[in-house]
Write the structure tokens for this entry.
Amino acid sequence: MQLISVNTARVGPLFVNLSGQAQSVMTGIRKQAVAGAVMVNRLGLAGDEQADLTVHGGLDKAVYAYAHEHYGFWMDACERVLKKRVPLLPGALGENLTTTGLLETDLWVGDRLQIGPVLLEVTEPRAPCYKFGARMGFAPAVKMMLQAGCSGVYLKVLQTGLIQAGQAIDLTAGPREVAIATINDQRLRGRQRDLFP
């Protein structure tokens, strides 16, 4: 398991289609890779911002991690829906940490991730909002994330410190009572029509 990119963004405007009208909303979803070491504090990464603290951020959602293994799925989805190949760089899904080897099907609430001196704890999967659809360029991306179960996970910071791309990630199992995949399944069950006939 490895950290392949550390990504941050300042809050800025994003145009979305709400009720048939284009509107500008503030968001920190446009993450970009940071070169060198980044400080991880209790409330997230230095230089990173969230626009809506009722949904993102805070102690239990201080850091968002996403598996690079899912990037092929999203490039294929963009090509299918937008009729063009869209290159997606680390951070494109709004994640702070782009990882390899940490899939939702292998993670449980309470699992701990050690990256250098930084200790993180898995708290819950992401529940994508309309801003994710706008960022990807097509609203059904929200339902696609839910249906595919490729949500990524939010992390609580237990021990602060510096991290940087290329570091190994060590996983220590928590109590293993609630699986991330189970939460994703519960969020999906009976609420979304099938996008993959």
About this structure: The first helix runs from residue 71 to 82. The helical segments are 71-82, 130-136, 141-148, 180-188. The chain has one domain: 2-188.
